[in-house]
Design goal:
Distance between the termini: 18 Å
CATH superfamily of the largest domain: Rhomboid-like
Number of strands: 9
CATH architecture of the largest domain: Up-down Bundle
CATH class of the largest domain: Mainly Alpha
Strand content: 5-15%
Helix content: 55-70%
Number of helices: 17
CATH topology of the largest domain: Rhomboid-like fold
Structural class: alpha+beta
Shape: elongated
Number of domains: 3
Strand order of the largest sheet: 4-3-2-1-7-6-5
Length: 526
């Protein structure tokens, strides 16, 4: 993604520029007496006709032609390598030089009319510097106005918004929360999906219950180091310019409203999925920047407007496409945040002119507040009116979280029992009693919890529920059979031993199936 802070891309004018009578020029440079007119530079170049180019023409011109550049008198000569073909460019026809890394471009405006665009690609910084010094620094009025606008734009933004403290504050809050999560043992690269819920992720069964605050807190929770790193880089790149254009508090309102609409869209689209991350709000910021550039494009320097308009379209399109192509990305939150950012951004945006900005300030803030309240009220209706089928799905998803700790406790107790001393019949009786009194009730409770939590017909979680029931039943049968074998040593026959082995094998298979099915409906980050 392009750097969004405004920067100047035009080269400095060559020293020694003099006035010129050419009708396009605002200034002109003629060859100085001490110029070395025999200098030759190896490069790749292209000369493009005016107007938009088709795909094949763009590909053709992008590669350029290998050749040489030389200066002689009033002309600049471009000569193809291994070819006698050459093109003489009059110095008086060269206007509007632009510089980007090893690439120099300028326009040709010959006296007979028409125009062409020349691109020179040189091999080193030193060659670029020398060529720029030898080229005339003539500018058309439009280009000169653009340079003035670029030169003053950064100062103009700084006067409107002196410091982008909201962007840095949001980044700091996200980093602090993630650091606290890591310190609490949630995980760094790969986090505990159930532990993240305790930190305020947008988990439908809780959010749609009595914990609507998760719609906000989920914006500051992330699923691992890579997740937060990518999001914070995007927020840093997009947020600073957007905050300067809108102002600190309006930018904060834009961010929070977009994040909120993203969270609501997420929980409405897939209410049983555990979702978190700042990308819904970041999409809203991108939408806010895009709508500002489109609405006030005439007040921005054309270069700034075109660059950021293209950057935002690319950012939105690429990330949405990536979300549709890969599992684990919450595109509902992205689309919801983008819609919220476009909506509230269009209302909060103000002209760059300070007087007009102040004149529209109260009205735009009032209108944005009213629209935001109405929008959230409309979205709140489906959040509070849930069908019976959806309610059953939510209860089952909530049960999965609750059973996780209970299952780990039952497994740990079973492992402790396996290491008990059982050399005498007394010790075997004690171990049998531990199984019957302490461990078997845990597996019975796990089985009963799933059995007593129904799912609607056709639910995608039906297969998961059946696998869980079979897994819990296998384990309680293993415990029951083992307890009987310990208390009645005469029952330690091959049939009982074979039965336990078969149950243990099936239990492992069902555990793997449960893990696989749960992963298919697990939490996607955003």
């Amino acid at each position: 993604m392009d750097r969004l802070e405004p920067t100047l891309s035009a080269p400095a004018l060559a020293s020694g520029a003099t006035a010129c009578a050419t009708p396009y020029a605002t200034s002109c440079a003629t060859p100085c007496a001490d110029w070395d007119t025999t200098q030759t530079f190896r490069l790749r170049y292209s000369i493009k006709p005016p107007g938009r180019q088709g795909l094949f023409s763009a590909i053709r011109y992008s590669s350029g032609i290998s050749g040489e550049l030389s200066f002689s008198g009033d002309d600049i000569t471009l000569r193809r390598s291994r070819n006698a073909e050459q093109r003489n460019l009059p110095r008086a026809a060269i206007f509007d030089i632009k510089l980007a890394h090893h690439r120099i471009s300028f326009d040709l405006h010959p006296a007979q009319g028409g125009s062409e665009h020349v691109v020179l690609k040189l091999g080193s910084d030193e060659d670029v510097r020398r060529v720029v010094e030898l080229l005339p620094a003539q500018m058309t009025p439009a280009f000169a106005a653009e340079r003035i606008a670029l030169a003053t734009f950064k100062d103009k933004l700084a006067a409107l918004t002196r410091f982008t403290w909201v962007t840095y504050l949001l980044i700091a809050l996200n980093v602090i929360v993630f650091a606290a999560m890591c310190g609490a043992g949630v995980g760094v690269m790969k986090v505990d999906r159930f532990a993240v819920i305790g930190w305020g992720s947008n988990f439908g069964p809780y959010t749609l219950g009595n914990e609507a605050w998760r719609l906000i807190t989920s914006m500051f929770v992330h699923f691992g180091l890579l997740h937060i790193t990518f999001n914070m880089i995007a927020l840093y790149a997009v947020g600073r310019l957007t905050e300067r254009l809108y102002g600190n508090m309006r930018f904060l309102a834009l961010y929070l409203f977009a994040g909120l609409t993203g969270s609501i869209a997420s929980v409405l689209t897939h209410p049983t999925i555990n979702s978190a991350g700042a990308s819904g709000a970041i999409f809203g910021v991108a939408g806010g920047l895009l709508i500002f550039v489109l609405r006030f494009r005439k007040e921005l320097p054309p270069t700034i407007a075109a660059r950021n308009r293209s950057a935002m379209w690319v950012f939105i399109a690429v990330n949405l496409l990536d979300g549709f192509r890969h599992r684990g990305i919450d595109n509902a939150a992205h689309l919801g945040g983008l819609a919220g950012g476009l909506l509230i951004g269009a209302l909060l945006a103000r002209p760059l002119d300070n007087e007009a900005r102040q004149r529209h300030s109260f009205r735009s803030a009032l209108l944005a507040s009213l629209v935001a309240c109405v929008t959230l009220a409309v979205l709140a209706y489906p959040l509070t009116h849930i069908s019976e089928a959806k309610h059953e799905e939510l209860q089952f998803s909530k049960l999965l979280v609750q059973l996780s700790a209970q299952e780990r406790h039952a497994i740990d107790d079973t492992r402790v029992w396996q290491h008990m001393k059982m050399r005498s019949q007394v010790e075997r009786d004690a171990a049998s009693n531990t199984l019957i009194v302490g461990i078997l009730p845990q597996w019975d409770a796990l089985y009963a919890s799933v059995e007593n939590t129904p799912l609607p017909d056709g639910s995608p979680r039906t297969a998961l529920r059946q696998a869980m029931l079979r897994y819990f039943d296998d384990n309680r049968r293993i415990v029951r059979t083992g307890a009987l074998m310990l208390s009645h040593t005469e029952d330690n026959d091959p049939v009982a031993t074979t039965s336990i082995r078969a149950l243990s094998k099936d239990s492992q298979e069902q555990a793997a199936l449960v893990k696989k099915l749960a992963a298919q409906i697990d939490n996607p980050p955003r």
